[in-house]
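Q: what does this look like with zinc ion bound?
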Amino acid sequence: MLTPWMTGISAGLGAIAAAGLGVGGFAYASRWPSSRIFGTALIAPQQPAEFALTFDDGPNPAWTPKLLDTLAARDVRATFFLLGSFAQAEPQLVRRIVAARHLIGNHSWSHPNLAQISSGQIRDQLARTQDMLEQITGAQVNYFRPPFGARRPAVFRIARSLGLTPVLWNAMTSDWSQPSFTRIAEQLASKIDRLNRRGLAANIVLHDGNHRQRNGNREPSVTAAGLLIAKYKPTHRFVTLDAWA
Ligand SMILES: [Zn+2]
């Protein structure tokens, strides 16, 4: 579903963009996290000892509370990209996330592919979610991650017009479909170590929610998060994404 992230390709894609992208290349680049064709986004700085855990597609009443317990037990702060429609159904859980001093961000209202809907629909998806999150928490929301990482030039322009900084990632695996938590953690750890060797911080995506159902099973992802925290907490500083803005 999502293109695996690779390094060192954005310059190459820039050259392709300059030469004019074919339709296939356009669709490809629109889901490529490090591609800058559709505007820049926050990914990760040159800080190899730093580590941002980010969780998408919640709030999930079945698994987000367990994740919050895991984070609290290790005194780790994370970033949660929430769906507006799920937040509307779980306002207390949203407030619990914020009360635990995690950062929340906008992940659209209902998780459409924003590269495939109109500018008016994109604005509606982002603005509705923004209003909902700010109404629930009473605080401004400043970050946005596009569902599937999918984008076209209008997506980041609209996000910025709403005061949102676009965010992507540099470490992900198919945690939403992988039943083995050890495999999820191992795959991410190898990506994290590779980023660190290149002098980069890791911006890791896991899913505490399932955008198709509000209380989908996310036990493998939540357990993998605990394993990654245990492995990296002794050597890394866990930050929320605002530390890098
Ligand atoms: Zn998502």
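The chain has one domain: 44-244. The longest strand covers residues 50-58.
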